[in-house]
Design brief:
Length: 356
């Protein structure tokens, strides 16, 4: 008996260590649940549509309901531990950094762009440029008729953006503008002294147990903001779940509910990237036949059935479905983004809505 008692503290310590490790794993990874037959059938239908359409190519898919992963799959060369280029999904992370800075009282969405960069302004500052606000940048309504083209330039990107013509009154012309998101990244860095990646690390990536990702930078050492972020599919799903939970993670508030609501709601009318509002009308695009016409929030697109999404080129999506308490995350190499979305809306949305 004494011999057993001598070993008891060691046994207890080992047990506690195992419990501690398990707890950390539960916190780090999203909980899993058995895949319901209805969800498997919906996924099978999505993937069958993928195979039938050469323009759609899923590389990963993760489906969550009530905070649990109900399905996860990786295809081709994709893998659970392999980061994927997010393209414009990066924008939603940059906007979240802006939201956190707003929550911390560092800026307001009504603040004027010109006030952040007085040393980078063109010689002739137009009234339209003077009127541009953070809100206009967040909603792709800064007034530039076309997006500036200087991503591959060694020139100062902030200076180049401010020199590009602001043809329209801010708030009246939707132009999908990745360099506008770069300006949001530059604003956060100007205010905090940290790159967006470093600013988000203790506020978002570490709490969500996301391994610190790579994020492209401009020649001036500012994260690209509108593109260049690399994440794993589960990282994407965690971000979606955070928004579904109105900014709370493991009982701790990371971003205010007010910001989540503002970022995800309909803020302005929208058209597909690379399309002018007048061109959309000429092409007969409507909310019924093109989901890119359903409206835009703060670097988030509206979706059918009160859902919304972070959206990246080639079909990278984080889709948040509040009415079903669900999140869908996927990576892809698709040429037809609408076709990829339609497969999700047609098959996964009703399956998730029907599942209790």
């Amino acid at each position: 008996m004494k011999t057993r008692l001598l070993f008891l503290p060691a046994i207890l310590s080992a047990a506690l260590l195992l419990i501690s490790c398990d707890s950390k794993k539960e916190i780090a990874d999203l909980p899993r649940a058995k895949t319901p037959e209805s969800i498997q059938q919906a996924v099978d239908a999505v993937l069958a549509g993928d195979k039938a359409d050469d323009s759609v190519l899923f590389e990963s898919l993760m489906v969550l309901k009530h905070g649990k992963v109900l399905y996860e799959g990786w295809y081709g060369d994709a893998a659970p531990d392999k980061p994927h280029a997010m393209h414009s999904v990066s924008k939603s992370f940059t906007a979240t950094a802006v939201g956190m800075a707003v929550d911390e009282g560092l800026l307001k969405v009504t603040d004027k762009l010109v006030d952040f960069f007085p040393d980078n302004l063109p010689e002739d500052v137009s009234d339209n440029l003077k009127a541009v606000t953070v809100h206009d940048l967040l909603t792709m309504n800064c007034g530039q008729e076309t997006e500036a083209r200087f991503r591959n330039s060694d020139q100062d990107w902030v200076t180049c953006f401010l020199a590009h013509p602001f043809v329209h009154e801010p708030g009246t012309w939707y132009c999908y503008n990745s360099l506008g998101t770069y300006m949001l990244s530059a604003i956060v860095q100007k205010l905090t002294g940290e790159k967006v990646l470093d600013y988000l690390t203790p506020r978002l990536f570490e709490p969500l147990h996301i391994e610190i990702p790579q994020w492209d930078e401009s020649p001036q050492g500012i994260n690209a903001g509108g593109w260049g972020l690399q994440l794993k599919t589960e990282d994407m799903a965690k971000f979606g779940q955070l928004f579904l939970q109105k900014g709370v993670w493991n009982g701790k508030r990371l971003v205010s509910e007010a910001w989540v609501n503002e970022a995800s709601k309909y803020q302005v009318p929208s058209v597909p990237a690379g399309t002018r509002p007048d061109q959309a009308e000429e092409r007969g695009l409507t909310p019924e036949n093109c989901t890119f016409m359903l409206g835009y929030g703060y670097q988030m697109w509206r979706c059918p059935d009160n859902a919304y999404r972070a959206d990246g080129a080639r079909g990278q999506y984080i889709i948040i479905v509040p009415d079903s308490d669900a999140v869908i995350a996927c990576t892809a190499n698709s040429a037809n983004l609408q076709a990829e979305q339609n497969l999700i809306y047609e098959h996964l949305f009703p399956a998730l809505a029907a599942l209790k």
